[in-house]
Amino acid sequence: MGIVVALLSAFLLLSALTALRPGRRGILKIVTYPVGWAAGELVIQAIGIQLLALGFLAWWRWPRQEWLSTLVVALACAVVACNLVLVMVQLRSRTIIRRALESAEPEPLRVGRPRDDTFGAWWRTLLQVPLHPRGMVLQKNIPYGPLKRHRLDVWRLSTTPSNAPIIFYVHGGAWIFGDKREQGRPMLHEFVSRGWIAVALNYRLAPKHQWPAQIEDVTRGLGWLKQAARGLGGDPDRIVVAGGSAGGQLAALVTLCADDETWRPEGFTHVTDWSVRGCISLYGVLEMTGDDVAWDGHGDKLRELLADTVVGVPVAEHEDLYRAMSPVERITPDAPPFLVVHGGNDTMVDVHVARYFVERFRQVAHAPIYYVEIPFTQHAFDVTASPRTSATVRAAVAFAEHVTAPLAAHSREV
């Protein structure tokens, strides 16, 4: 049993080290994300498992071999120490995120403290389980189009005021998997608790439905929301689009293509304004050609995925198509404000992609862009309700409330 506990401790230690310094070469590139993500997000759980393993070993029979006893204790101490570092990383993220927005130019934003959370109580953060708010009314699987995947959910409170602002969430999943029920829940729950209406949609997935089916569906969903917002109790002039990973790409693209009719569906002639107030891109794929500069040389896997599964044609022969898919290529001077959040240890979408997009946005657009780069943070970090996620949610709330404030309002016809 001592050997088993030693092996478990060694695995927990390697996982924690992977979360702190992920590998990017060979087999490490394959296992880094799942192992590093779990270790980086489930820190308290890892410490608990280690302590339970030691307790079980003491109850079962502590190893009599001195070398094994020493190894178990040493590994356990290292596991606890590394995971305490990860705890500090998560807690430090709160300050980093707050300062990034409060020091942004030309329009700094005040970000709340943990005590300001409406829904993110300390015990929810400790459990890291994204439970939904009491009194939340969920309208499930509302059709926004004729196809099976054309379904969306609407979340609100029974006390949500009329003419409420709306957050429109697009799930990720590499354009090939994912569901509206699985992602963004800690953020959407906080928005709902603050009197917002949250809308999350499904869209067609590759390889059965290749590009541009995904952006066509998200555009259709936005058009449906523009038409239906009043009936839902929402304000069609105060919509913020958000998404993570592939959903971040789709959210950014639909935001930046408000004046482009390419992907608009038929039957929405009454929608004369396709613009939104802003976009929240979480670890989004904001450059789609796998450019070596934008991706810091790590774009080969993206090119393979898109060519083999999502788009069906290689970028080298269809560069114009891939550039049209890239949010960074769609930035214009009148682009709406953006909030971009990315993890420094992201091995799925390199952090240089976010930096590249932000730099280009600042060069071209007149609206502000807020950028938060969180150290030692993997892809999809916001799935659990961790202290880091709660801090990101507070930043998203500060951004969304700012861009939908009455002072920012202007008349639109829908």
Strand order of the largest sheet: 1-2-4-3-5-6-7-8
Strand content: 5-15%
Look at the structure and name the CATH superfamily of the largest domain. Answer: Alpha/Beta hydrolase fold, catalytic domain
CATH class of the largest domain: Alpha Beta
Structural class: alpha/beta
Give the domain tally: 2
Helix fraction? 40-55%
Count of DSSP-assigned helices: 13
Number of strands: 8
Mean of the pLDDT scores?
A: 92
Gross geometry: globular
Largest sheet: 8 strands, mixed
* Cα radius of gyration in angstroms: 22 Å
CATH topology of the largest domain: Rossmann fold
Span between N and C termini?
Answer: 68 Å
Residue runs with pLDDT of under 50 for 5 or more positions: 409-414
The CATH architecture of the largest domain can be named as 3-Layer(aba) Sandwich
SSE pattern? HHHHHEEEHEHEHEHHHEHEH
Topology (SSEs and partners):
Layout: H1 2-20, H2 26-41, H3 43-60, H4 66-102, H5 122-127, E1 136-143, E2 151-157, E3 164-170, H6 185-193, E4 197-201, H7 213-232, E5 234-244, H8 246-256, E6 278-282, H9 292-295, H10 300-310, H11 319-325, E7 338-343, H12 351-364, E8 369-374, H13 387-403
Parallel strand pairs: 3-4, 3-5, 5-6, 6-7, 7-8
Antiparallel strand pairs: 1-2, 2-4
Helix pairs in contact: 1-2, 1-3, 1-4, 3-4, 4-13, 6-13, 7-8
